[in-house]
Amino acid sequence: MTAPFAAPQTDGAASAAFIEKRPLEQYVAPDKPSLIGLTRDALAAALGTIGVPERQQRMRVQQIWHWLYVRGAQDFDAMTTLSKELRAELAQHFTAARPEVVAEQTSVDGTRKWLLRLPGETDSRPCEVECVYIPETDRGTLCISSQVGCTLNCTFCHTGTQRLVRNLTPGEIVGQVVLARDRLNDWQRAASPNGEGEKRLVSNVVMMGMGEPLYNFDAVRDGLNVVADGDGLSISKRRITLSTSGVVPNIARAGEEIGSMLAISLHAVTDELRDQLVPLNRKYPLRELLDACRNYPGVSNARRITFEYVMLKGINDSLVDARALVRLVKGIPAKINLIPFNPWPGTQYECSDWEQIEKFSEVIFNAGYASPVRTPRGRDILAACGQLKSATEKLSARERLALRAMAMTD
Ligand code: SAH
Ligand code: SF4
Fold it and tell me: Which residues are catalytic?
């Protein structure tokens, strides 16, 4: 169920223009549950409820899994390896629906953004999240959300100011990947194991959209395990990065039960400043956070932890900070990603000057870390963000997602 899409834009400024979307009042919540995002066990149980005998369930799960996640089937009619009766029975009780895309925008550099509309917590008002695809020469990164809004109030983050908060379901998490493959015609591209055919566009996933994934642990775990399943969407865990503001008790669990790459929103090198920027630091201070990183299951030089550091003018961007940052992460297999702050209306912060970001980055680079700020493209996006200063909150949020995901890929 998709709305008419905005025509692809022809230049950077135009791509920041108004998103055409349908009024919220026209939203109709789905009346049947979607099978997208269920774990294999949950899918087997769902089949049990419509009378599929237990001895057949494993095979049917395998078949449906293939249709949903390898072929991208959007309805049961397409699932021709299932009997007509079973297809009809499935269609009567379930769907293969993805989150509803209410707007799509393509920017000049190929970045695609989708605005998704989801059922509200109570049926009254639907909610919206965004999902951004950023193509690069050697990969394509999809930035997905884990919650609508966020219960944490990082002072530089616009999501933290939003009132509406609910956890996304595993189906809504997996649904973001599935609909990106739909919109990019990615299902038809499938390289065979011997390398023939075309590589899929969505090769990486970063959970860096809205929300704190480790406060929606079970859904994020189940959803990401579906995304990584080798018989399905097959995005390897080394190509999935989960970003957390530092929910220490769940970091080890994430390593054990999810096993994706980990990114930590560090942003400050002293507890005093981090308490202000990331208030969760008052609960889980730097020492505990860094210990959890040191002990992250599976961490090694080949599986480094990414430390994200948002560049805030005059706040955390001095060269003293840069040197302290290097000292702080010493001994932890680490990458450092500097993220130019993306301003939003009403924020008290400004993005550091480009010159300062470069100097800061040089200190990091000289300490042996890959140069963390993206050059031509990073500047490009930064410029776009500057142009957006006077734009609406929605647009700013959209650009912010793109920028974040950009800054994440190395
Ligand atoms: N809640 C998680 C994941 C979502 S935020 C987390 O905090 O890690 C993803 C990244 O974007 C985080 O590093 C976050 O600090 C950063 N971010 C938030 N607002 C930003 C802004 N206005 N400009 C630049 N980066 C921002
Ligand atoms: Fe939530 Fe992350 Fe934003 Fe902090 S930075 S308010 S944890 S989404």
Answer: 130, 385
